[in-house]
Specification:
alpha+beta, nine-stranded mixed barrel, single chain, 381 residues, 17% strand, 18% helix, globular
Length: 381
């Protein structure tokens, strides 16, 4: 009897002490497809149910289902001496679970209020920027598809008359459009297999977000591009320019706010969109991520349907999950006459996400005579 009781105590203590016992592996139905088809347009993908630990409506998530569930609880002494002060000064502190003996309603509310953006999301659109309902917006395509009037991805001619563009930037966009009209596909980060600057990075049709206690990790579905965003930190006094820039973030209620500066401008194919809109080292991008139901996302979805081409077809009319809307504020005193806004709208994608690698194409694009692929006229051996 004593042996059985001892074993029972040990098993119970192990279950309490091990965070791994409360974690579940990601189900296969959360993987997404890397092709142009949108999972939300596929009836089969909508028939899959969310696991019990991850409620379908995205609300009232338990500590087990939350991406922060692996965090250790704060000691009682720390919570008594300044836990409230720490939580006020540091939003991530509010995400830590309090001990059962001292758990309060406010602590429960803080954990529940952290939005859960985990999983795979797909916008499936080309281009990707949805113009705002009013005010300065992104450069859009002057050429439209004859079947439905949306942007013609096969003929990218940016609207160089957009008042957000300074004269030199407007001239760059105009020349890119003239190349398209002549049947020439001009190089950009994607077709040249270069890292994509923010916000060109959002050309990727699908993205998976991993929420950690100290950072956000964003995985994109092509060419193994990964973006790291530090949580609750400031930009350094002197930012070293990099391809993705220096990105920091914090939560504002149900919204994740990401602020990015230091995006490397002294590089090939420095552009913010498919129309070749340039940028300088003064580029500053702010992103605000929110989960929305259909009624809240309706305006953005309607504007997207009028402007953007979706190779995989429209969003499924009976899609019942949340949408992930990202609202951008973009400014660059060296390129634009004013800050401007745009949005990207995602839906959940539960299909398989195959690996897609960018590879050089020595055949070139359309009328390209030389795409600059290194080659040898004479064998070395």
């Amino acid at each position: 009897m004593n042996v059985e009781r001892s074993l029972l105590v040990l098993v119970t203590l192990a279950a309490v002490a091990s965070p791994a016992l409360g974690q579940q592996t990601a189900p296969a139905d959360r993987q997404a497809s890397g092709d142009s088809q949108s999972a939300v347009a596929s009836p089969a993908s909508r028939q899959q149910t969310a696991p019990a630990a991850r409620p379908a409506n995205g609300s009232s998530k338990s500590a087990v289902a939350s991406p922060t569930s692996g965090r250790q609880t704060a000691p009682a002494a720390r919570q008594a001496n300044g836990g409230s002060k720490s939580a006020a000064a540091n939003p991530t502190a509010a995400q830590q679970a309090a001990p059962a003996a001292g758990q309060t309603n406010s602590a429960k509310k803080s954990v529940a209020s952290t939005p859960d953006f985990s999983g795979i999301w797909r916008h499936g659109s080309l281009p990707w920027f949805v113009p705002p309902a009013s005010g300065p917006g992104p450069v859009t395509n002057r050429t439209r598809r004859k079947d439905n009037g949306v942007s013609d991805y096969g003929m990218l001619v940016g609207d160089y008359t957009n008042p957000i563009l300074q004269p030199w930037a407007a001239e760059v966009v105009k020349k890119k459009g003239e190349m398209s009209l002549a049947g020439i596909t001009y190089p950009n980060p994607f077709n040249q297999c270069w890292p994509s600057p923010v916000p060109f990075l959002f050309k990727h049709m699908a993205m998976e977000m991993l929420q950690r206690s100290d950072k956000i990790v964003m995985l994109f579905n092509e060419d193994h591009e990964v973006r790291y965003v530090r949580l609750n930190q400031s930009h350094p006094a002197k930012v070293k320019p990099s391809y993705y820039g220096d990105a920091v973030a914090h939560y504002e209620g149900d919204t994740l706010v990401i602020d990015t500066v230091g995006i490397k401008a002294d590089r090939p194919y420095a552009m913010v969109d498919l129309f070749g809109t340039p940028y300088t080292d003064k580029l500053h991008v702010v992103e605000r991520y929110r989960l929305l139901d259909y009624e809240a996302a309706k305006g953005t979805l309607e504007r997207a349907a009028k402007e953007l081409w979706r190779p995989g077809g429209p969003f499924a009319p009976n899609y019942a999950d949340k949408y992930l809307q990202v609202d951008f504020m973009i400014e660059d005193a060296g390129t634009f006459t004013t800050p401007w806004t745009a949005s990207v709208i995602y839906a959940r994608d539960r299909l398989e996400w195959p690996e897609i690698s960018c590879a050089e194409n020595p055949a070139g694009f359309h009328n390209d005579k030389d795409v600059g692929i290194p080659h040898a006229d004479k064998a070395d051996f």
